[in-house]
Backbone:
């Protein structure tokens, strides 16, 4: 299980948002101005070009245990299972939301079903990118770029210093894989951690 968020990070709730989901942008089109952040944004802008399966542990700061999420891409169909909620998106971008076993299905992405975790079904891609750009617009000082190995994969990371309402300084960090998906998020509202990443084997044509 992932370690709980540190008290220093918890002090940033009023700045980083109340949950792990998308945050409203500070302006119509926030501009990233530091290279370390841009490197991670560039990766999250990519669309994965291979089929894959990624597993995450999602731990809101208010939760004692992690929720397991699995994201898989297979022949243009993306399936994101978060706990017992399954989001399936076809190649045309149409999404359905069901409980495991194919029950309680509705058309569209019903992110309200995972609102207790404060994330959307795109937590691993576009949601992470939006949050990163928003936090970059709030930063104080210079962001720090690093590399790490997460879920057995090489990742690039950025740590962004943010001000808080109690005049303390904390840090929010994001990491991304070369394949274009989130590898790690650590903030006041919790953590998202990639625990495994597997690429589907290429099938040779006869």
Residues:
């Amino acid at each position: 299980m992932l370690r709980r968020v540190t008290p220093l990070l918890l002090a940033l709730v009023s700045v980083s948002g109340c949950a792990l989901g998308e945050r409203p942008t500070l302006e119509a089109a926030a501009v990233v101005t530091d290279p370390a952040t841009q490197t991670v944004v560039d990766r999250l802008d990519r669309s994965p070009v291979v089929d894959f399966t990624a597993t995450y542990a999602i731990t809101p700061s208010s939760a004692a245990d992690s929720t397991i999420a699995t994201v898989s891409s297979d022949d243009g169909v993306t399936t994101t299972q978060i706990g017992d909620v399954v989001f399936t998106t076809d190649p045309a971008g149409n999404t359905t939301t069901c409980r495991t076993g194919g029950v309680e299905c509705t058309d569209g992405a019903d992110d309200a079903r995972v609102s207790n975790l404060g994330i959307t079904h795109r937590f691993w891609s576009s949601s992470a990118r939006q949050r990163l750009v928003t936090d970059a617009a709030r930063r104080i000082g210079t962001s720090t770029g690093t590399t790490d190995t997460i879920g057995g994969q090489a990742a690039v990371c950025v740590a962004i210093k943010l001000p808080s309402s109690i005049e303390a300084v904390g840090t929010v960090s994001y990491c991304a894989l070369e394949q274009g998906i989130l590898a790690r998020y650590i903030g006041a509202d919790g953590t998202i951690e990639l625990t495994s990443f597997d690429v589907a084997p290429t099938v040779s044509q006869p």
Notes: The radius of gyration is 17 Å. The longest strand covers residues 153-163.
